[in-house]
Design goal:
This protein has 154 residues and is of the alpha/beta class. Helices cover 39% and strands 22% of the residues. It is globular and about 40 Å long.
Length: 154
């Protein structure tokens, strides 16, 4: 089970992404924030996701993730490895249904969702999808490992 560094990018800090990536320990997830509660929310235009995709066009060593499906699909359409980050409370099975149908490589689900239905991890792997957990405390790490998750986000 790998531990991923997460670099969060919003509309106001895309320009600093190269330096932040250089400072992050591999493997790295670049999470594009495009939240409807933010003044910079711009789905379905996704200017932030488009700028991130342009900056990462020649990189195959990062995963671009977002809880905003428009942003995740912009990165996917740019040829990047992508992950969807379902909100806490969404079941792993439901998240995986979207992730696999949309052609994302990974599902970054809350640890509680993974632990509630650990059998879904094997189904994800059978479908060619990796499962990475977020929000895990130290007590949950062994159970996540037993469930077969591919990684956790720090």
């Amino acid at each position: 089970m790998r531990t991923y560094s997460v670099v969060v990018v919003g509309a106001d800090d895309v320009g600093g992404l190269p330096e932040r990536l250089a400072a992050a320990a591999a493997p790295v997830v670049v999470e594009v924030r495009n939240d409807p509660a933010d003044a910079a929310f711009d789905a379905p235009h996704c200017a932030t996701a488009r700028a991130v995709a342009a900056l990462l066009a020649d990189r195959d060593d990062v995963v671009v993730a977002s809880a905003d499906w428009y942003s995740a699909e912009v990165a996917r359409d740019a040829g990047l490895r992508t992950a969807f980050v379902p909100p806490r409370g969404v079941t792993l099975a439901a998240a995986l249904a979207y992730v696999t149908s949309a052609g994302h490589a990974e599902c970054h689900a809350h640890a509680d969702a993974v632990l509630a239905e650990p059998e879904a991890v094997a189904a994800a792997h059978a479908a060619g999808c990796a499962v990475v957990a977020w929000g895990a405390d130290d007590a949950a790490l062994d159970r996540l490992r037993e469930a077969g998750v591919d990684g956790v986000r720090s």
